[in-house]
Amino acid sequence: MMAITSLVFVIPMTLAISFIPGANHSGYSGPALAFMIIFVPIMYLVMGYVTTAIACAIYNFTFKFVGGIEYETVAENV
Questions:
Q1: Within its chain, how far is the Cα of 64 from the centroid?
Q2: Where are the beta strands (DSSP E) in 1-78?
Q3: pTM above 0.70, yes or no
Q4: Which of 11, 25, 34, 35 is the most buried (most CB within 10 A)?
């Protein structure tokens, strides 16, 4: 899901880079742009998974000391 979501940002940025004057001379040619469209969502997926795993580990470690989050609601009589 994260890889698909990243395409919302990758595709417009790729198109914007392709319209920069002189982009073909600086290495952002067709194959480089195609590589970016494939590589960036995969890296977004991997980094999202790793950071989520680290955040969950930190939460599980600190849960013993903090006690977690509690939320209560009370119904109003209307």
A1: 29
A2: none
A3: no
A4: 11
